[in-house]
Amino acid sequence: MKTQTTGCVAAAKAGMDEKTARKYVKAGNLPSELKVEHTWRTRTDPFEAHWEDIREKLADNPGLEAKTLFEDLQRRFPGVFSDGQLRTLQRRVKRWRALEGPSKETFFPQLHRPGELAQSDYTHMGKLGITIAKQPFDHLIYHFVLTYSNWETGSICYSESFESLSEGLQAALWELGGVPQAHQTDRLTAAVHNALHQEEFTQRYQALLRHYNLSGRKTQAASPNENGDVEQSNYRLKRAVRQALLLRGSFDFESIEEYRRFLRELFTKLNRGRRERFLEEQRILRHLPQRRLESCTRLEVTVSRASTIRVSNNTYSVESRLIGESLQVELFADHLDLFYAQKRVDSMPRLRGRCRHLINYRHVIDQLQRKPGAFENYRYREEMFPGSCFRLAYDELKERHTQQVAAREYLKILALAAKESEVAVAAALDELCGHQPVTAQAVEELVHAQQIASPVTEIGVAAVDLLSYDRLLSGQQELAHAI
Is 398 in contact with 406 (CB distance < 8 Å)? Predict the structure, then answer.
């Protein structure tokens, strides 16, 4: 009776039914020892007769999918295999890959040491839908990561040029406050020569590395996993940016500077959890040089007869008075400065991509007025319409006049926009189009009417009673004595 009671209590404590407990006690074995391994099939393998043929196909082409093989069997043996048997073949192919198939790519975890290596890369941000003043902002972020602590920072750029690499790397190092032993990129054309070149890195990139006493490293061709820390950080960064934008409630920024502040705050937040390991690295980092290296590329170009220059496979217009002269160009990541006789004569945004053009109508309008016949077939004619209202005005002029007269009249309007105000001329054209004929004289009259200053409102300023200050001071002195 006592044994039976003890067994009941033991079964209850184990959360087991009393009958099950008696079965295990009677057998004298543990539950795991009583389990029989399932080594038999419950149903016939429908693919047994064709498996050798399937195996040969897999051995010759390991990339074949089970579904492709199954559809091939259905086509060769109509009515033998039903769609519901696909899963059976998938399981068998899966076992073949694990037991007999080719080896899979293996990733080898790397040992990172403090202050040893930094990696950098570019990541495209266009798919996030970020806008500046409601306009799409297609851009990249130069991304810099320390592999030991995963401390990261980045900067906005527009291409994978050497100028953006130099500016981004130097900004990251100065924000970091020190220099690691080595810097690694993928095979950027701005930094790395192709395999046939004698030198590993470009001269400009070597000069940048020497300035900061950095050892340069690059990944092997088609091996982005070698830059794995920054590649993975790219994914996490874009996810963090998207989440921060969703929390912010808007993907639009008033200016690029506001977007830069947003990114700086985000990087600060991301780096807070890495402070302990970052401090380890910071103690080992080498000192920065005394100054930054200039990030621009200097070029010398000659202004063509079309009043344009070619810089990095793109075309820019300049003042026609500079035709035939040599200009010094300082090419930065986002803009270029033009110098003549040691004096800066212009500054303009840098174009992205290749074979593009940036033509300012103000540079050529005076010469176009002298040669109005060249306007209709001018290669860059579309750049001569700074707004839709200008194009509508020209189309209306062509409806009422010959092509030569329309071009001459429109160029007068465009010259007025260059001389007076493009905004005022656009407003005048909006008022005229669809209401009365557009003429240069009518536009000029409306522009001058807008410029008539409204009378200044007279504001009366009452005379100040100086005695009130004396009373205020005396009151403060009495209060001080009372305290």
Answer: yes
Q: Work out whether strand 357-358 and strand 343-349 pair parallel, antiparallel, or are unpaired.
A: unpaired
Q: What is the pTM of this model?
A: 0.68
Mean pLDDT on 399-416? 93
The answer to whether 300 touches 326, Cβ cutoff 8 Å, is yes
pLDDT tens digit sequence for 91-106? 999 999 999 999 987 7
Over the stretch 38-57, which tens digit does the pLDDT of each residue have?
A: 665 667 888 988 999 999 99
Which DSSP helix (H) or strand (E) runs through 338?
A: strand 335-340
Helix axes 203-211, 162-176, angle to 10 degrees: 10
Query: What SS3 class is residue 454?
Result: coil
Query: CA–CA separation, 169 vs 142, rounded Å?
Result: 8
DSSP for 34-49 reads: HPPP--S-SS--TTGG
Q: How far are the Cα atoms of 405, 415, 440 from residue 394, in angstroms, in the given order?
A: 11, 14, 11
Give pLDDT tens digits for 290-306: 999 888 889 999 999 99
Q: In what order do the strands lie in the sheet with 252-253?
A: 135-136, 131-132, 252-253
CB 234 within 8 A of CB 143: yes
CA distance 78 to 206: 66
**What average pLDDT score do residues 316-320 get?**
95
Any residues with CB less than 8 A from the CB of 159 and at least 6 apart, and which? Answer: 140, 333, 352, 353
C-alpha closest to that of 227 among 262, 185, 190, 255: 185
Show the DSSP H helices in 387-437 as ranges: 388-400, 403-419, 422-432
DSSP letter for 301, please. E
80-89, pLDDT tens digit by residue?
899 999 999 9
CA-CA-CA-CA dihedral for 386, 387, 388, 393, to nearest 10: -70
DSSP β-ladder status, 152-157 and 140-146: antiparallel
Cα gap 360→346, rounded to integer Å: 12
**Helix and strand numbers, DSSP H then E, in the chain:** 17, 15
Distance of CA 407 to the CA centre of its chain: 42
**AA letter at 448:** H
Taking the mean position of all CA atoms in its chain, how far away is CA 480? 63
**Which residues touch 173 (CB under 8 Å, ≥6 apart)?**
179, 212, 288
Closest alpha carbon to 144 in 112, 103, 179: 179
Beta-carbon count within 10 A of 290 CB: 5
Rounded-to-integer distance, Cα 433 and Cα 440, Å: 13
**Are the CB atoms for 338 and 347 separated by under 8 Å?**
yes
- Distance set, CA 443 to CA 255, 369, 372, 421, 439 (Å): 33, 17, 19, 12, 6
- CA separation for the pair 166, 80 (Å, rounded): 66
Q: Whose CA is closest to 205, among 179, 170, 174?
A: 170
